Amino acid sequence: MLEKLDRTLQRVEWLSALVGAVAIFATMWIGVFEIILRKLFNNPLYGQLDAIEQTMVAYAILPVAYCYRKAGHIRVDILVGRLSGRRKWISEWLASCAALALVLALFPGVYHFFENAYSIGDSTIDTQWPTWPSKLTAVIGIAILVVRLVLDVWAYTRLVLNPAAERIAVPVSDHTIETE
C-alpha cells in the first residue's frame, strides 16, 4: 500500500513541479517583454509586477514536495551519510517528524491567509487581480508536502523496525551514491 501511495503521490508531485516550471518560464518571458517594451517603446508592461507576485508562489511552493522526494533539499548528509542501518533510519525518521511538525504548524496560517484573501476580496494594487488563487496555490503546495512527509515518516518507521526492508517512499537523490 505504501508503494502504491508513493507512486500516486509522485505523479502529483511531478505535475506540481511542472506547473512551477511553467510558471517560472512564463515569469521569465514576462520580464523579458517588460524590459523590451520599456526600453524600446517607453511603454512598460502593465501589471508586470502583479503577474510576478501572483505566479511566485507557483514556482516557490508547488515544487517543494517534488524536490524533497528527490532529496534535492538541504540535508545534513555529512552526518547522516556516515550512519548506517537502524541509526541512519532513526535519524531520518527524526528529521522527517520534525519537518512534518513544522509544516503542520505553518499550515493553519497559510490556510488563514487564503481564507482571508478570499473572504475580503483581496486584490493586487495595480491590476486589482484577486490574490486568493495564489494563496490557494500555497495551501495546495503545502498540503502535498504534508502528504509526502507523512509517507516518509511511515517509510522510515518501516526501516527503523526492519533496516533490511526494501526502501519504499524514501527520498533518494538521482546523483547520490548510497554506501550501505
Write a concise keyword list for the protein shown above:
mainly alpha; 0% strand; elongated; 180 residues
What would you call the quaternary organization? Answer: single chain
Count of discrete domains: 1
Instruction: Count the beta strands.
Output: 0
Mean pLDDT: 90
Secondary-structure-derived class = mainly alpha
Order of helices and strands: HHHHHH
- The N- to C-terminal Cα distance equals 26 Å
Q: Low-confidence segments, ≥5 residues, pLDDT <50?
A: none
Q: Please describe the biggest sheet, giving its number of strands, its sense, and whether it closes into a barrel.
A: none
**What share of residues are in beta strands?**
under 5%
Helix residue percentage: over 70%
CA radius of gyration is 20 Å
Question: How many H/I helices?
Answer: 6
3D shape: elongated
Produce the secondary structure layout.
Elements: H1 2-41, H2 48-60, H3 64-69, H4 77-80, H5 85-120, H6 132-161
Q: Describe it for me?
A:
Helix 2 (48-60) packs parallel to helix 6 (132-161) and helix 5 (85-120) packs antiparallel against helix 6. The chain has one domain (2-161). The chain has six helices and no strands. It has 180 residues and is mainly α. The longest helix is centred in the first third of the chain and has 40 residues, at 2-41. 72% of the residues lie in helices and 0% in strands.
In short:
The chain is mainly alpha-helical and 180 residues long.
